Amino acid sequence: xxxxxxxxxxxxxxxxxxxxxxxxxxxxxxxxxxxxxxxxxxxxxxxxxxxxxxxxxxxxxxxxxxxxxxxxxxxxxxxxxxxxxxxxxxxxxxxxxxxxxxxxxxxxxxxxxxxxxxxxxxxxxxxxxxxxxxxxxxxxxxxxxxxxxxxxxxxxxxxxxxxxxxxxxxxxxxxxxxxxxxxxxxxxxxxxxxxxxxxxxxxxxxxxxxxxxxxxxxxxxxxxxxxxxxxxxxxxxxxxxxxxxxxxxxxxxxxxxxxxxxxxxxxxxxxxxxxxxxxxxxxxxxxxxxxxxxxxxxxxxxxxxxxxxxxxxxxxxxxxxxxxxxxxxxxxxxxxxxxxxxxxxxxxxxxxxxxxxxxxxxxxxxxxxxxxxxxxxxxxxxxxxxxxxxxxxxxxxxxxxxxxxxxxxxxxxxxxxxxxxxxxxxxxxxxxxxxxxxxxxxxxxxxxxxxxxxxxxxxxxxxxxxxxxxxxxxxxxxxxxxxxxxxxxxxxxxxxxxxxxxxxxxxxxxxxxxxxxxxxxxxxxxxxxxxxxxxxxxxxxxx
Amino acid sequence: xxxxxxxxxxxxxxxxxxxxxxxxxxxxxxxxxxxxxxxxxxxxxxxxxxxxxxxxxxxxxxxxxxxxxxxxxxxxxxxxxxxxxxxxxxxxxxxxxxxxxxxxxxxxxxxxxxxxxxxxxxxxxxxxxxxxxxxxxxxxxxxxxxxxxxxxxxxxxxxxxxxxxxxxxxxxxxxxxxxxxxxxxxxxxxxxxxxxxxxxxxxxxxxxxxxxxxxxxxxxxxxxxxxxxxxxxxxxxxxxxxxxxxxxxxxxxxxxxxxxxxxxxxxxxxxxxxxxxxxxxxxxxxxxxxxxxxxxxxxxxxxxxxxxxxxxxxxxxxxxxxxxxxxxxxxxxxxxxxxxxxxxxxxxxxxxxxxxxxxxxxxxxxxxxxxxxxxxxxxxxxxxxxxxxxxxxxxxxxxxxxxxxxxxxxxxxxxxxxxxxxxxxxxxxxxxxxxxxxxxxxxxxxxxxxxxxxxxxxxxxxxxxxxxxxxxxxxxxx
Amino acid sequence: xxxxxxxxxxxxxxxxxxxxxxxxxxxxxxxxxxxxxxxxxxxxxxxxxxxxxxxxxxxxxxxxxxxxxxxxxxxxxxxxxxxxxxxxxxxxxxxxxxxxxxxxxxxxxxxxxxxxxxxxxxxxxxxxxxxxxxxxxxxxxxxxxxxxxxxxxxxxxxxxxxxxxxxxxxx
Lengths: 543, 478, 171
Description:
The complex is a heterotrimer. Chain A is an alpha+beta fold. Chain A is built from 13 helices and 25 strands. In chain A, helix 11 links the parallel strand 20 (401-406) and strand 21. In chain A, helix 7 crosses helix 12 and helix 8 (327-339) crosses helix 13. Chain A starts with 5 loop residues before the first strand and ends in a 14-residue tail after the last strand. Chain C is of the alpha+beta class. Helices cover 50% and strands 11% of the residues of chain C. Chain C has helices at residues 3-15, 21-32, 41-51, 57-67, 71-80, 100-104, 107-118, 160-170; strands at 92-97, 131-136, 148-150, 153-155. A 4-stranded mixed β-sheet of chain C has the order 2-1-3-4, with helices on one face. The N and C termini of chain C lie far apart (49 Å). Chains in contact: A-B, A-C, B-C. Chains B and C meet through strand 3, strand 5, strand 11 and helix 13 of B and helix 1, helix 3, helix 5 and helix 6 of C.
């Protein structure tokens, strides 16, 4: 497609340039001029129904809806005239007529567009004294509930179901002021993108049942990060209150997920706040007692592995990482086992599933957030070939000690691995869950998970993206990369423990030397495409 | 104003409607039917037909009065997309019943007009959208279309040329808004009849996103006569800028209500008193709505005005669809306005906020005034609501509701004031709470609620939900 | 699976209806008149209206399967239009025009008369399922007001005596 021609026009006297065909509201927002709106959403086709974004245009007698008015050469737009202000106030007064104003008990309160717009542009009271319309409050499906009274019929959700998910469950039913969004009985809103309708609902009409009454949005702090639910790596905002993640919402990234994310991804923080999360270190010492001091974790593992290595040779130890570790963790992991002089380096990954394709959104079949990172850093064979070798090595007793990562959310070790691992002389395992079924002689170490790590991950399309810390680790837990680095120290490979940003620098030089990424900050909020998604580059592994 | 001598006027559109068998193709062919279409297709190029119609100054009869030929000329000539010709027979403006006569009594004249219009814009598919209530009209049209196909007036190779045309009769299902051009197209596409944003205008991007012309039934019925007799002849009927025969529907308090074919520009007074037999029961005239309920009302002293698009516009009302609703001096204007607003509230599609909420609010206020609980400030509130509705929406339904409201309230303000004073049996010091402040009114109100609950097309008003905060419960059934 | 799904899916299986062969043929013909299937929805709803004597959830479900559209979409379209016969409405649907021209010529008396006579309010159906009374907006027959549309037919210039006779003829 050729570049659209640029046209010059004015908003409030300010000269602006935008490609022909851009809608006025978009151009205004990009120029930092506020145009209040409800039904307009940059990810959906404009509909022009809420009439909130009315502005004056030099080519029309009446105020026009700026979301459906394309810019034109020489057009003059006014967004702050008295006519516009009066129109906005009028629309808002009418919009509030049948709105229940139940903000104190509404989940949307604090991030409600109606609340914000009325505060900025609306009337201070209503002249209507008659009873309001009543509309149903009900379930729309297993994830979303409807508060019909709050609905302002902007049709964002129905457009989403038509244009993005293509599933068409939601429809506006009835007409006039009886209109309300609903599903057809027996065909509930059940698709893997359903919760996006809650995000885009400008008011509290569609509410996530999972988040219902969980938190007030103004109490939550946002941290930009990425979802680690699958290889898509959707950009998200992690919202936490009192160091507990409450909700994950998608963050705009046109290269990855646009404005959306799947429902499953929103559950990715659940293991971190789960009740059966492993919080204590259980380090079995030589005399059979259990040491819980995290400071001793590195030396316990190191000594254990060293013992095996001394008894059976360096080839008798193995390391198994996972496709849920960050690139930095994988990098240290790789260096450590290179230092331990063992070729047995593998990585667990969740099995492939069926990819799901929606009209404008794909949920990939690979449920591992950093599979590509594993391939680049540990080598492609780590995920299958090496794992098989390690399994048979353990089974034929040639491998006698191992350090493994079991931080793959809800994934459980397959049965053959469980029985194989119990044959080991020494086993250290980083896990999210308290595993009572593990061999008695193991070191059990709590793993860190989503929202707790700093670092980077390489998504399925070859985009390197930043993970950020949203919630502080429980006090009893240390970062895996710290423990791995301490082990490196014991080997004499590293002088001091460094943060992930420093690891990133080392790793960037080693893994992607051609890219000249020097600091993790350069990844920014949108990540960097380090590999072309289509081509199959030479495997670059740490040498 | 000078009265027209109607005895000399030769009927054009209604020439045959009173005759036995006028709805059959045999009758129609015997009386010169399909000659205009034949002439247009065999003797003129499409562009010539557009020129002739442009020259004739034929203006659309649906309500807006847009020049028909000009509308056609907006259709892009060089496009790969199919084009569509759509005839609007969704006659639902209150007081309008002119197209129904043509549909039921002279369906072939519509088909002939469709052939000419379709040929002019070079399209091969035409639709006629008829409102769902007119079952007999629908059957008549289906019969006529079948006859026309059988005789080769529709289908492949019309009149021995290589011009093909398919016509489908599409039945609506009860929605006033589908009479609006783009609402009609949405409905024809199988969607909710919500009007679309303009621009792009239908002539550029209409039905199925292809160039589309939408014309009223009465408009297309003029075409064959223009082709047959020439633009000059047509221009001599009535005012030059908007000439031609006009079907005017007179209803309400007159002795002889009905649809009358008159030349454009007939005096409204003459129409009411001579043609329609004057106000009934010997009563005095109080008010006239000249162009369907969407038009601004005229007081009795304002009716001495020619019925044509421009003259009506000059006195700040409109000829619209030509629906003249006459009200005598016994009419309660508050009640009349309540009736009008209830109609628009019922028919608002619910897309744009000002219309969706504004019509409902106006109805609630008027209902309250009617029930004797009005307040003086209601009058200005209503005028202000009208202000906030006009020109703020995608289509003109909000304007159509606001115009009669603002004009009736302004012109008959004293009636509203009297009504409010009569019913002022409540404590005026309390401004909120409305009619609820009066003892006894509470139970009445609850009755209203229960009544609303049982009315279809209204989401149930569950009294339990009203008394409790609705948020406390998530129902598990629909 | 939520309770919501369990209840309604079971109901759906119970009430499932299908178009007759004749209706299917008609629908196939309707498809040929429009460039896409969606556009055939209004005419197909008319077919269903006749086929199932009023449109209810089962009919919408059937149409959705027939046309390959989402039931939610059809539900939205169907509820927009008021003229389709709803499932559960009486054998005779009395639609009294209540808009201004009819109101000026006494439609209110007609409504009140029918209310008294049938013992139901507008929007209700008599207990024997024979009559449904509806107040509707303009029927485009203002010159012959007051007008009542009973099923497909218009009854114009009605007096209360005419109305009584008419109702009796249905009994």
